[in-house]
Every structure is written in structure tokens, then in C-alpha cells.
Amino acid sequence: MQMSEGVEWALHSCLNLAWAEEGTAVKATQLAAFYELPTAYLNKQLQALVRAGILTSATGPRGGFRLARDPRDIALLDVVTAIEGAQEAFRCQEILKKGPGGRATVDYRKACIVSQAMRRAEIAWRRELAAQTLADLKVQVESKQPRTPEMTRQRIANL
Amino acid sequence: MQMSEGVEWALHSCLNLAWAEEGTAVKATQLAAFYELPTAYLNKQLQALVRAGILTSATGPRGGFRLARDPRDIALLDVVTAIEGAQEAFRCQEILKKGPGGRATVDYRKACIVSQAMRRAEIAWRRELAAQTLADLKVQVESKQPRTPEMTRQRIANL
DNA sequence: GTCATACTACTCGGATAAGAACTGTCCGAGTGGGGTAGG
DNA sequence: CCTACCCCACTCGGACAGTTCTTATCCGAGTAGTATGAC
Q: Could you give phi then psi for residue A100, rounded to 5 degrees?
């Protein structure tokens, strides 16, 4: 069980977009250059964020990506879900249906104790991710590295 | 990000072992027959549980698997970790090292705010799994389906 | 000088391969029990 | 009848393919800006 590394890329890219000049679109090439990432593949991840309504995109000259809404309204869970999909990590195959006393009509995704226990853990995970927004991370970084917004904008301008 | 289905198999198999006659080893064939699972592949998962110290195994006639310790001392996290590995789902690649102002000597798995946020969520997940033991699940199932222990032992005897 | 038009460079978007991980399968190593022969 | 030995069936254990998902890449569709020419 390992998360796609695209999640890390997406989160950092969203943060950089949050620091970008307002009203300016940032190209995939620029976002990739930040951390020397493969441009085309990062572009794929950004497309997923667009489909999820987290980013907006524009083609042609002066095109690129920008945040679709205020960073306070973008939870980390939104970004993770956009990349990884909404399905749960633990996928109950309802093997109890084949077991002794198993009924084909019962929904074991709800009835199975094992499934319930695993779901409870995953809900706790999602709750933590839903509780934190891009704006929260932005504030935390800026309190540690006050020059980050300035440096980010400079880097975007010089690419 | 999807968990191996072996986790579901392992959890249910451990529960069945907890219900088995004490002092009796259960063969992989029997555990597989419970839910019509592929024997050889389930065997592979059981071996992982043995390596993790959750089960003990014996070869030869009258051989098979049994729980290595009391179900109260086996947390769900132990089983999940045995199958999935101990590494975290979110793997911080420390891409900040390549970024503006990035220092190669800094351990960004600890310093990076994004990494911290993701780790916090994963710790919440692990905490939930560590808080529940096989014995807890056993009790919950028995209160809903009191005949489960009896039926399990019968099924083992008839295979 | 102004406006419309065609062109060109640019950027995203989806379709297309390479690689890794998960899933599934097989045969050999080692063990324990039962049968057999000798005392 | 008891005991020691040998043989055999049995079970796990690790090595070996098939399939799905992740990672990586490329080229085409569409757009905005610019230059050009006519009015």
C-alpha cells in the first residue's frame, strides 16, 4: 500500500500556486522546474486536479494553471482524493459470502466486523486530512520561512 | 493507493485460528477452503504472518498454522503491517531539496510541513488499528453471531 | 490611422509505451507417523 | 510382546510466470497574441 508520489507533487504545486501572483497563470513547465520534476507527468497530475475542480487551466500563450478557489476552501483531503481516487484503501471483497453461514443478500461491507474496523481507521485518516487546508499549511510555512512567498514569486518570474 | 486484498484474507484467517480448537494446527488448505481462496497464494500471506511472529507454523503431517500468542496481544495493526510492510503510505521524496532555498543537509521528512501533515493523518490511522485487537473483534462477532465459534470448529473438522 | 484577417508560437489534453508491484502457481525440503522386522 | 529402524505421505517454504496499476512520454487540438494588408 503506497500512495502515488504524485500526491506530494500536487500538494507542493498547489502551495506554490497559492503563493503565485494573483491573476497570473503558472505553466506546468514552471511548476515542474521548481523541483526538477518530469513536466509531462506532472501535467497529468495537474489535469486530475482540474477535473476535481481544485485548479483551473487555460491553454495557449499566457495560459497555465491557477487555484480554482480560495486556499481556505481547499482541504488536503481534496487534493489527495483528486490524485488517488475516492475509493477506500481497504477494499472489502465480502469473502464472508463464501464462508459458513454466509448469505448472498447481506451487504458485508457494512455487516462484517473486520470491514467496520478497517473503515473506522480510514475515517480517522480522512478526518485529519479534511481538517487541514492549503491556507493552514501556507501559514505554517510562512511562519518558519518568511521569505518563501517572495522567493516563490521570483522563481516563477525567472522561468 | 489500494491495500492488498491479502489483508482481508489474513484478518479473517487469524479470526478463524482464534476460534480453532486449542492445540490444533490448521492447514493452509483448510483456511483457504473457508472462503474459496487460492490456497497457494493464501499460504504466501500466512508465511508473512509467521515472519512477523503472529503465527507459528509446522510442516509435515498434523502440521499447519496456529496463533503465536493470545488474541488480546495481537492488534489489527500488527496484521496489516505484516502484510503491507511497515513503510508509510505517503513517501516523502524530499523534493524540497531541489526547490528554491533547499538544503541537501536538511531532513525534509521531518522539516517539511506537507510531510508533517500527511504523517499526522497516518498516525491517526495507525492509532485506530493499534487500539483494536483480534480478541476485540472476536467478542464483537460472537455477540452478533453466537454460533460462529461452533460453526468454525465444525468446518475445520470437516475439511 | 484604424480595423479586420490570417498566421504563428504556445500550452494544455488525451492517447500511447515502459516499468514495477501485486496476484497467482508450481515443485522441492523437511518432518512426523505408521509399518515392519528383529530381539 | 516390545523396540528400533526405515519408508512414505504430507505440509510448509521459497523460487517462478501472468496480470494490473503506476510511471513516463509524445504528439495533436485549441487559443491568444502579433504582424500584415486593405480601407
A: -70, 130
Is A96 in contact with A108 (CB distance < 8 Å)? yes
Alpha-carbon distance A131 to B112, whole Å? Answer: 18
SS3 at position A89: coil
Kindly list the structural domains of chain B, giving each domain's residue range(s) and its CATH number in brackets, ordered by start.
6-86+134-157 (1.10.10.10)
Residue A126, CB half-sphere, CA atoms under 13 Å: how many? 14
Q: Is the CB of B96 less than 8 angstroms away from the CB of A120?
A: no
- Per-residue model confidence as pLDDT tens digits over B71-104: 999 999 999 999 999 999 999 999 999 888 778 8
Residue nearest to nucleotide D14 (CA to C1'): B44
Contact B99 A137 (CB under 8 A): no
Strand C atom within 7 Å of B61 CB? yes
This prediction has a pTM of 0.91
